[in-house]
Amino acid sequence: MAKKDLIGGKLWETYSNNVIERMNNPSFFGEISEDEARGKEKRLIIADWGAESCGDAVRLYWLVDTSNDTILKARFKTFGCGTAIASSDVMAELCMGKTVDEALKITNLDVEKALRDSEDQAAIPPQKMHCSVMAYDVIKKAASLYKGVEMEDLEEEEIVCECARVSLKTVKDVIRINDLKSVEEITRYTKAGAFCGSCIRPGGHEKRKYYLEDILAEVRAEMDREQIKTAGSLENFKEMSPIAQYKAIEEIFAEKIKPILHRDGGDVEIMDIKNEGDETIVFIRYLGGCATCAAAGTGTLSMIDQALKGTVGPDITVRMI
Amino acid sequence: MDRVYLDNNATTMVDPQVSAVMTEFETKKYGNPNSLHSFGMEVRKPMEKALDQLYKGLNASDEDNIIINGCATEGNNTVLKDVLFDRILGEGKKKKVLISSVEHPSVFNTAAYMGKMGAEVIALPVNEDGIVTLDILKEYLVPQETALVSVMWANNETGLIFPVKEMAEYCRASGVPFHTDAVQAIGKIPVDLQDVPADYLTFSAHKFHGPKGVGGLFVRKGAPVSPLLHGGEQMGNLRAGTVNVPGFIGMGLAMELAVSQLDRELTQVRSLRDRLEDAMAQIPDVTILGKRELRTPNTILASFKGVEGEALAWELNKFGVAVSTGSACASESLETDHTLVAMKIDPSLSHTALRFSLSRFTTDGEISYVIDVLGKAVERLRKISIDY
Question: Which A positions 116-145 lie with beta carbon below 8 A of chain B?
Answer without folding.
Answer: 127-128, 130
